[in-house]
Design a protein that fits this description.
It is a single chain. The protein is of the alpha+beta class. It has 15 helices and ten strands. The two termini are 68 Å apart.
Length: 414
Amino acid sequence: MGDFHAVRRVRQLIQGAVDTALVPVHAAVSKPAQRAYLGTLLFTLASCILIAISSIAYVIFYYNFIPQIGVERVIHLQFGDGHPHGTASLSTSLVSAQPYDVSLYLHLPRTPSNIAAGNFMLDVSLFAPSAKASATSSKLDFITASLNSTLLARSRRPATLTYVSPLVDTASTLSGIPFYVLGWKTESEVLEVPMFESVEFSKGWMNVPRFLKIVVEADEKMQFYEVGVKIIARFGGLRWIIYNHRILSYLFFTSTFWACSVLSSLLAWFALGSFFPGDNEEQPKKEGIEDSDKAIKNEEEHDDQFDPFSTEDLSDTSRSFPTLGRQMPLHFSSRRGNLMKGETEEEAKAKKKEDEVMASANIQPLGAEADDEDDEDDQGLRSWRDSGIGTSLEETDRKTNIARRRRSLFGSGN
């Protein structure tokens, strides 16, 4: 016997340990946990998608907000018709409300004529786009027509080659002969002349230059290796921060855009949830079904606990019950019928109480009848339940009881 209790105790301990070990597992696979996993997964996927969208949005914003930092064009000078001159198209590289620095670079050989020219003038003009130029087909005619449009800016600046004395020039040439022979060095000089500083154009596409013209004014015929223009944007404020701190700007703006997207998504989710409450409506329905099931169970339990002297189980149908001897028959009036006849609730309660008193009295005319009624307790209890239908089985049962009581009464009299 002791071994049996010990084995049982060990089994209980093992079962308790297993149940304790499985508590986290049950919690991990429970329905609330599954809903949490699903919500986390959906939030992670939505966050990744929103991060990708935020990155794409920042790239689009960057290329629309930050203009091209530098524009460089080669100008092909034209000779034989007055001073050397040339034009260049700037397309849509420039934007409005942005300061620019414009400079010219000239690659000049150190020929006697260029040295003899001394100071010479550089004339740069910026022109707005022309509607007539856009209708022409030839590129040359396109530029020529555009040069007849509105002049937006013009600048004239002097330039000259660096002076070198004959002695220094001779010594430099002799010392650099090997480099000249190998082609590593040439007798030329590159001049970079600033033409505009922080030039800014008004808003509107008609106020942004699309073409540039340069004229070289000199008393001597000059030779050029190459002539070009450089336009450098001078950023300030937010553009300077975004351009010079690109990684920090990307992280900040992408995070801000992502946070706004998540907040907007949550607000939209809650708004849709308020307009289309699916689970919120099903929960009260389930609770209502559970409450109704509990009520039905309580009614079944209440029906099982039958009280023969309670009027709660009586039917709402008015009935008359016969008695033995010369006693008045018992009459049961339904509460619904009394109310329909116009009786007040107090009168109905009074009649109910009177019926309960008469039922509790349980007057027996003869002593011999008690024995018969003891044998018929089950049938007497069943007679208190009234279905209100008045079936033939109940009527037959009642007649049988009356006949049995009469035989008992007549038999005791003899």
